[in-house]
TrEMBL record:
GO terms for molecular function: glycerate kinase activity. It comes from Corynebacterium timonense. GO terms for biological process: organic acid phosphorylation. This is Glycerate kinase. SUPFAM superfamilies: Glycerate kinase I. It holds the Pfam family Gly_kinase.
């Protein structure tokens, strides 16, 4: 009589690839704490942590290089410090617009109309002075809707009105723009190659543009939104930039000003590229291959809403999981947008301790995954 023995089931391979939970957890911490929760239920899980970003806060620190900190200004013009990454071997600087011009720094007094990106321009100029020939600029988490004009001012290109007077900072004065004075432009800084990482592939203007989609979360009133949208449309007219270009609405339409500057100095648009930030970070990590070999992929962010499918981390990871046929799960503070039917969705519990929130979410995901895999298998 032949005895039949069954081999033990292989340990599940789990990839954890969340974005940062803004204001509460860095992507690396979120991944670690979700993993703790999963391992509390699935003891033998083979877990791979892949902290993600989409061009927003925390993107630059995912790249190799020296971390550089220097004084600059925030979106309201107040003195602050900001940090970016400089890779001397590739002469590439990785800069988050959120580092100097981010929303958290002005949360006490938002500046949607008057806030500008001058502080980010300071970081760009510093990077070029260290030898950078390429700027990878993360376009997520900004407090501004200035079309990148603050960066232009920091690099010596001054927007002026019909009388030749300097415009006020921010997007609220852009309707008065007549020209951009390049008499003192920083040619070396403006002539670098630009790779802009868009966290949302929205256009510069219109109902799905920078002002309408992101203005309210930056503190803009309905009247402010209309003013900003008209200003960006006028900026595009003056600079000759197509406002419908996908991704040009990210970070308050920063790509508009940068494209104009690069075109002015080079004569072509060939030195500026706008790409989905989450896709680039995923490629850098080889995430598609990791997910293809996994039993479960877990991602997450602070809020999963109608902006999430516009190219942010969660939608990117879910797309990769769907292509690979891998079970996927999402942990979020709130889930306000419908997830695909086969995706596990877990909202964080209302607790003061972020680590506890995420470990509990990880444990809940593990329980639901085991229940689903048992039913299917």
């Amino acid at each position: 009589m032949t005895q039949i023995t069954s081999s033990p089931a292989p340990s599940p391979r789990i990839v954890i690839a969340p974005d940062a939970f803004k204001g509460t957890a860095r992507a690396a911490d979120a991944a670690h704490w979700l993993g703790e929760g999963i391992r509390s239920i699935i003891k033998d899980a083979e877990i791979t942590l892949v902290p993600m970003a989409d061009g927003g806060e925390g993107t630059s620190e995912l790249f190799r290089g020296e971390r550089v900190t220097l004084p600059t200004t925030d979106a309201a013009g107040r003195l602050t410090e900001a940090t970016y990454t400089y890779d001397e071997d590739t002469t590439t600087a990785y800069i988050d617009i959120a580092a100097a011009s981010g929303l958290p720094a002005v949360a006490d007094a938002p500046v949607p109309v008057s806030g500008d990106t001058y502080g980010t321009g300071v970081l760009i100029a510093d990077a070029q002075s260290r030898g950078a020939t390429r700027i990878v600029l993360g376009l997520g988490g900004s407090a501004t809707v200035d079309g990148g004009t603050g960066i232009l001012v920091a690099l010596g290109a001054q927007p002026v009105d019909a009388a030749g007077y300097n415009l006020k900072p921010g997007g609220g004065d852009l309707e008065r723009l007549a020209d951009i004075d390049t008499a003192t432009v920083n040619i070396p800084a403006g002539s670098v190659d630009w790779l802009l990482l868009a966290d949302a592939l929205v256009p510069a203007t219109g109902r799905r543009g920078a002002a309408h989609v992101f203005g309210p979360q930056k503190g803009a009133t309905p009247e402010d939104v209309e003013t900003l949208d008209r200003g960006l449309a006028h900026l595009c007219d003056v600079t000759g930039v197509d406002p419908a270009t996908p991704g040009y609405g990210a970070a308050g339409a920063v790509a508009v000003g940068i494209t104009w500057l690069s075109r002015t100095l080079h004569g072509t648009d060939g030195h500026v590229r706008v790409v989905p930030g989450a896709r680039l970070v995923a490629q850098m990590h080889g995430l598609d291959e990791r997910i293809a070999g996994a039993s479960l992929v877990v991602t997450g962010e602070g809020r999963f809403d109608d902006q999430s499918p516009e190219g942010k981390v969660v939608s990117t990871v879910l797309d990769l999981a769907a292509a690979a046929g891998t079970t996927a799960a999402v942990a979020a503070g709130t889930i306000d947008h419908e997830l695909p039917d086969d995706v596990i969705g877990v909202e964080l519990e209302a607790l003061d301790d972020t680590r506890e929130q995420l470990t509990r979410a990880g444990a809940e995901i593990a329980v639901r995954y085991l229940r689903t895999s048992t039913i299917q298998g």
